[in-house]
Specification:
about 140 residues, 2 domains, four-stranded antiparallel beta sheet, about 50% helix
Length: about 140
């Protein structure tokens, strides 16, 4: 009679190990199917934020507003690496688009990130520069 209890105990232990193994495999397959697209676009978002910071600090955005010309912004966008594309639009504080420029040879993509930076030009008026960036 003692041997039967030992056999039943062994079968229970084996059954528990099999169930635990199935659970671990299910978790592994679930986690391996998750996508990391959010983290892949982080570098292009940082590029957008840095680009807007550079354009503000060297007063390119301010000059573009004062002269009503986006040529300097266009030159900056064209100097980005070949695999990066971008579009910069400048808005007033009332969300009216004032200037817009896109890198030459690029078409808009669904997988883009957007960065926004505010700056002051034209006698303390507030403007917003929005850069949409994507990979070619």
């Amino acid at each position: 009679m003692l041997k039967k209890k030992a056999i039943i105990f062994s079968l229970d232990a084996i059954f528990a190990i099999v169930i635990a193994g199935i659970m671990i495999l299910a978790c592994f397959f679930y986690l391996s199917k998750t996508t990391t697209n959010l983290y892949q676009n982080q570098d292009i978002y940082k590029l957008s934020l840095d680009s807007l910071t550079i354009l503000e600090k060297d007063e390119t955005l301010k000059t573009a507003i004062e002269t009503s010309s986006a040529t300097t912004i266009q030159q900056f966008l064209n100097s980005l690496p070949d695999q990066h594309c971008g579009n910069i639009t400048v808005y007033t504080s009332l969300s009216t688009a004032v200037l817009s420029s896109q890198k030459t040879g690029c078409t808009a993509n669904n997988e883009s990130t957007i960065a926004i930076r505010s700056f002051i030009a034209n006698n303390s008026n507030i403007y917003y520069a929005k850069m949409e960036a994507w990979y070619k």
